[in-house]
Predict the structure.
Amino acid sequence: MSYTPDLSTNASGYRDSTALHAIAKADLEAKSKKKAVDGDGKPYDRPYDPDEAKFYKLLKTMFAMAECAGYRVESRIVLRDKKTGKVWK
């Protein structure tokens, strides 16, 4: 049987709503954050950016397609997002 502490009370057994709200807010923030991943799918500590994730997924697909066709990408790939105009290098 596992022990689950009652977060609504402090160590003395008295109700502690300030601590309860702070812990609940921290838990909610942690759950809402997604980990960003690099091109190899390895997570790193940076806020999740859906545009960046889309770029790395596309880049990985392009490298895989070149490999399947018997080619290797030799130089830098530069892409511009049609919607945002952001340049990815």
Notes: The chain is about 40% helix and 15% strand. The helical segments are 17-32, 50-68. The first helix runs from residue 17 to 32. The radius of gyration is 22 Å.
